[in-house]
Design goal:
539 residues; 9-stranded mixed sheet; 19% strand
Length: 539
């Protein structure tokens, strides 16, 4: 499973610390290892159709006892119907073993599904469902018709009373008529509901059996999943072992998500620890087409996901000297540049790399600095936010009342915003609108994904400014304000299909994210004068 580099690596210094997996620039040895794996994948003609659909691969640069350096490789999930291939490290636990409990129990669950499908597709069940629905409709129609007849008869009696001087016997006759008609309606209602109850009881028998199977399936699936998670016993560099149920116990869901433990890095580290290999560096890269909802590009390195891998890696990396998180305690030097200010509001030009509000790992932010600058300001101050890596104009209110008024302008889309972005590639169209609904990727925060079912509407207009050196400078006009809207709309295959230069989440790293909030236009909530602000940037 240990592969030697086919190129000379003697002049490449070894990494001083292991790769921080959630935000990294791949080490040169990692890049070379990935290129070796890519050559191997290109030679596997029998896998090309599956590989074209896209898969994540990982490489681990390791040092052997004799001081020599090589690498191991892994893939996430299953490849070509198996999770074992000679070139790649084995899984932490082989759930596909023919004699394993997972396959046996999976067959039992599949049998339940088969029985349910047979019942639902049977003529007897369909006939029962149709007869029940038809009778429900007939009962509803007949009872409604009878109710309307009662109302009409009541109206005629009231009209008779108002136009005719009835004697006592006549009045009593109308009362008896009313009582008889109501009693007849009640008898009709009881008869029809009794008939419907018999029919529904027959359907309940069918559905009761289906529900019992559903509950059995749910119970067996949960037990199988829990038993499976306990088989994933993961080592760390100290030799300590914990299973997935322990590692995810303190997460919000308290249970591992499906596929936990099957990503590349947990496999690679487990194999290294079991074979006494010293991990030096890591990288995970995509191969093939991008998934429909996500943004992935062939050959690009990606950080480990938060949802499936973070709880695992907090354990498996213990005992290794790991690079520090580059986002911890980020402090941006220099003062905030004020672009506009009056007694009610202020607009600043946020530099790239500075948070809009304090984060989990850094207190330095635009909001923190504004609170120091305006200690007597009331309310939340910032009216909107920009991503840490995005530069540009940020609007803040000095009073709670003005903040509320400005927020209403944003909510009702009365604030016009223009962003400038530099795209990787030459965009063929000059103008257009991107309409792709977005939702959070809960297993890989802070990434967002295109989600046609549950995503929120996201609309972006764009205009090309110029094309030069294989890149395109565009102006974006967001009509909605979703998280990472411009970044996903630029990079996604159904958007522009050209990521913004320097986008580490949806593209490739560069000196910075080339996205800048260049212009703001709105009506001042106090003076009612139109405010037009612009601050351009050169990427």
């Amino acid at each position: 499973m240990i592969h030697r580099f086919t190129t000379d690596i003697s002049d490449i210094p070894l990494p001083e610390r292991f790769t921080y997996p959630f935000h990294y620039t791949p080490h040169p040895l990692t890049v070379l290892a990935a290129q070796e794996v890519e050559r191997y994948l290109s030679a596997r003609t029998d896998w090309q159709e599956e590989l074209r659909q896209g898969k994540m691969f990982g490489v681990l640069v390791v040092q052997l006892d004799d001081g020599s350096v090589g690498f191991t490789a892994a893939f996430s999930g299953i490849l070509a119907g198996s999770n074992r291939h000679d070139y790649f490290v084995p899984p932490v636990y082989d759930l596909l073993r023919p004699d394993g409990f997972f396959r046996r129990e999976e067959e039992q669950i599949s049998d339940i599904n088969h029985r349910m499908d047979e019942v639902v597709a049977s003529a007897a069940y369909r006939d029962c469902v149709n007869r029940t629905e038809k009778l429900r409709q007939e009962v509803q129609v007949q009872l409604e018709t009878a109710r309307q007849a009662l109302k009409e008869r009541k109206r005629l009696r009231e009209e008779l009373r108002s136009r005719t001087n009835l004697d006592e016997e006549g009045r009593q006759a109308l009362v008896r008529e009313s009582q008889f008609e109501k009693a007849e309606y009640k008898r009709l209602e009881r008869r029809m509901k009794a008939e419907l109850e018999v029919q529904e009881a027959e359907l309940r028998q069918w559905n009761g059996q289906l529900e019992a199977w559903r509950q059995e399936r749910k119970s067996r699936s949960a037990a199988l999943q829990n038993r499976l998670f306990r088989q994933f016993r993961l080592l760390n560099a100290r030799g300590e072992t914990r299973d997935l149920t322990e590692l995810f116990r303190d997460t919000p869901a308290h249970t591992p998500p499906a596929g936990a433990g099957e990503c590349a890095l947990p496999k690679l580290l487990q194999h290294a620890y079991l074979n006494e290999l010293h991990p030096l560096a890591f990288g995970e890269f995509w191969w093939g087409d991008s998934p429909k909802n996500e943004v992935r590009r062939q050959g690009v390195f990606y950080p480990s996901c938060q949802g499936k891998c973070a709880p695992i890696l907090r354990h498996t990396l213990q005992g290794l000297e790991v690079e520090p998180d580059p986002l911890e305690h980020v402090v941006q030097e220099g003062e905030l540049e004020v672009v506009y200010e009056d007694e009610w509001l202020v607009v600043v030009d946020k530099p790239a790399g500075l948070l809009s509000v304090p984060g989990k790992k850094s207190d330095d932010s635009v909001l923190t600095r504004l609170r120091c600058r305006y200690p007597s300001a009331t309310g939340p101050l910032l009216v909107h936010r920009l991503d840490m890596d995005t530069s540009g104009l940020l609007l803040a209110a000095k009073t709670k009342e003005v903040h509320e008024q400005l927020q209403r302008l944003f909510e009702t889309r009365q604030v016009r915003k223009r962003y400038t972005a530099l795209l990787e590639g030459v965009l063929p169209s000059d103008t257009g609108t991107i309409d792709l609904p977005l939702s959070p990727d809960w297993l890989d925060r802070p990434r967002q994904k295109v989600d046609e079912l549950e995503g929120k509407t996201a609309l972006t207009q764009y205009v090309v400014r110029c094309r030069q050196n294989g890149r395109t400078l565009v102006d974006f006009f967001p009509l909605t304000g979703r998280t990472h809207q411009l970044r996903v709309h630029a990079a996604h295959a159904r958007g522009l299909d050209f990521p913004i230069v320097g986008d580490v989440l949806y593209g490739t790293p560069a000196h910075r994210l080339c996205l800048h909030a260049a212009a703001l236009e709105f009506v001042h909530p106090v003076t009612h004068q139109r405010v037009c602000l612009c601050r351009e940037v050169k990427f």
